[in-house]
Amino acid sequence: MSVNAGDRINGKFEVITKSRKLASYTIRICCNEHWFPQQFRNAITDRIVNIATDIFVKCWTANNIRIDDDLGKAQRRSSLQLEAHDSCNELLALIQIAQEVFHLRTNRMKYWGNLIIEARGLIKSWHEKDRKRQDL
Known about the structure:
Elements: H1 14-30, H2 41-63, H3 71-102, H4 106-135
Helix pairs in contact: 1-2, 1-4, 2-3, 3-4
């Protein structure tokens, strides 16, 4: 059962949920021999999976850093957020290569690309909120 758009809450864990969903989806499709033959795993799919899982791990790790008044912790959290954001851009580039090499369907690419773009947007918003909070 879905939740009405007006009743949804953009919780602080939405970025974690979205990045986990991205990693899970990426692993599932990259391990599917129908779409990604075994002989190409080392060439591109392993890298795609590693980046997708890194995005989730960086978000998870950043979320578990309690800033308080510690500038070093704040910088570490900010760095992880920016790395995760940059990894989303890298992942978008790699799936474009995968689409061409493996002739992936447009619908699959739209869904996958949207997962990445949504995660990237949430990470960016999260980073900006943290920066504003630190400026106060």
